[in-house]
């Protein structure tokens, strides 16, 4: 039997048929149909179209709608209403974007219909209009005067006087859709934006009247909130005016609590910035009415949550314990010992057992907790109101929750549109503060996070709070409550500290009460944001201990996202203001907290039986006794991170594992391992003495990570390696406070780096497909301890150098920049800097990078060139190798360095600052035969002019500071014709100008230092030039306290010290021809100079900007030398020309001696 082919209908075939039917209804000349029949057929056809489920082509929908509107005249109001319903239905259901031609026709039709048709049709017409303008705002420009002008239709219909709320809602929705932005398209003009903003604001400020349906009012508020959010996001609207900000924040706060069970607040029309809590008034009647209902909930809650205890629900016993959370006052050392016996030993213990330990407030009862029984949320099965109360009530609660979510989403956009310093003026309106005695807890974002029955709304409130906390470090830095303030008023610092404490307490309450994993993740993220910004060193200890204790159980939560965010919080704790004594105590707690005592102390040798997860005490068993721990064990956090990173996973923790492709591997989920690596790196960075006992073991962890296939794991392994290397470097710095016997031994560091170089590091450095990984590995290799590098085997040293020189030719700018920087580190190693071949190879590589097109590469290369030229100077003053180094180092390369540095000094500031440093060093290094060489002459002149122009330029202060330092270096070279060459006058003039007038005192200090460097009078040139320098220094001394920037004032003492040293240096070199001008200056300003010099002499041991100690005896010796020198010159002068500068100085010295005797007496 032959198969019969059945032709399937095209998806858009039915719409084509409708189009044809519409075409047939057009009036044909000579074949008019009765009007009544035509209307009936149109009604029938529109009804069929509205019920159509087949997905049409967008072009067909547009053509059909245009044709339908052409057939319906505006006097046929029932058909107008029906065709508008059709527009609204088809565009929304099939997500059709209308082309511009049809859009213009349809918009004109709707606007005309609004003007001509009866009011009963307006809601349907506005719904059609809203669908048409959605995402089409930029195409509607010519219709805006009709819609949003002074007498615009949308303004009329959305007016507060409009009695029909449905009509008002439809108009507000159309307006909100008009405000949506389209990427790459122009946005609404400012005038229209302002009109829309005011309309939305007035809608949100309006109150619901008794005749208005609750759900309709909720939808009206939702549309207004969406409109404001679109204006803030799409229009990049910046809220600047206080009244505008205050009005918006007031309505947002009002809507945030809309319909929240058990709470009713009345808000003022505007909030005003103030450090004190904002006024908000609760309605006592409604609150009292709500209490009987809410007190019935505990019984139901207990019944429903009975079988869910194991899944993370919290029983009544735990909840009731919250009420006693404020009864204890545990401070200081006692606070740090809190719950060591139970919490610390079981990091994964049931959170229910921790409810009573959430937070402790020293003052009085826990006010928020005392109200908590009236705030209990319904169980997770009821949280979205599926069938808890049924019907209209359920629907209404859902709509109210949507309003609250919309207000919070709008607030999130507002935060981005308000400057943080302005936003923090409203801090107390949204962030909880500890209530006063007898006063109720103020409503805040935490009220929603603790009380709202919808998990999604709670998560939204926490997101907003996180956004407020982000970047709040400077604002919160004023907080201080370490000392008890007994004053008639509460200082602002104490108010902020109180708010911080309340935030900790409320967030920890929310943590133990939350059952939704998504919301739990937001709570922990919010806590991490808070911890990152709080100045704990200024607060009484104990806050971090509570957070630390509370977060431990969530490290093994069933949801991976909760576990990751918990690790993020622990990372925030170990990185905030590290090292903090409180965190050090927490880290020193025995590692048997949740771990098996029988386990090995070395993390890389954990076996599965030792894993922290298996060591949890079972129900009813007491936890391990921490007294049995050995001090050799690593801290709990270190061992936890290592176990997550290197040990195989035991089982699947949640269905969310499926979201991550790497979760099928034998290890823990990738995000969890990455977060553990980051926490480990932060721990090493902030608390290296704690981690150094496991230095080699942590090195093995880094090795294992770099050997894996996943580039992100490799990357964070390399970052851990860099932190380990940097920690050792910090210990061996000359100014390190770590005693030599407390440092990681050099032999251990050599073993560590041998392991790295024999392991994955060389391969990682050559992993070209992953540039970021190469860059990080390069940074890690540059963190090697110089003393350890010199003890490595020769082939390993060559490997390091070869790899870095090779990477300096990478095409990737990130890798090239890192390699250039690493070479700049290696060039300072004592075992390499005297190797002429290495110095030459490095110089060529750096000069190559100095001409790179990437500014970042050039900046790193300039820094390395500065280091390389520092090496040349060091080699100059090392007696033994100098002749050979001098002979072997290429003159051509030196000339190339001079020219490249001169060229780089004209680059951007980041390059320029180190280029001028290199110029000063090279000019200092030049020998007489270089200066006599004609090839060098032009390059020397150009480089000097570059330095002088940089000193005089308007570049950043760091650049000018380095340029002054470089000129001082130039003056140290006796082979240069200082005092004779024309550039000398320019150099002295530039420095004299800077020392008098530069706004930055550190630049002035460097210029004064440079002016005091020449060791012979001839170097200062003519008498006129010498006297100009002298006069400039005297003026600079008198101006040493004049500054517009208060931050500069702290350098004024150092500036006076340096100027006084320069003046005494000039006096000790002065000639007889210089004395008249010097005497004239002393005659005019003698008293001022005398007071400053006396202050300089008595200032005792002081470290000046050069880093040299000059004690008072040395200063007296220099003064006596100047007196002796001047006395000899003055004796040679005869008659009236004789001046008495030496006598003036002797008087200064006598005054100083008398003052010293009085002090000693």
Automatic annotation (TrEMBL):
Residues 278-326 are annotated as: Disordered. Residues 403-583 form the DUF4042 domain. Residues 279-289, 310-322 have a biased composition (Basic and acidic residues). Signal peptide: none annotated. Pfam families: DUF4042, HEAT_2. InterPro entries: ARM-like (IPR011989), ARM-type_fold (IPR016024), DUF4042 (IPR025283), HEAT6 (IPR052107). Residues 299-309 have a biased composition (Basic residues). PANTHER family: HEAT REPEAT-CONTAINING PROTEIN 6 (PTHR13366:SF0), MALARIA ANTIGEN-RELATED (PTHR13366). This is HEAT repeat-containing protein 6. It comes from Accipiter nisus.
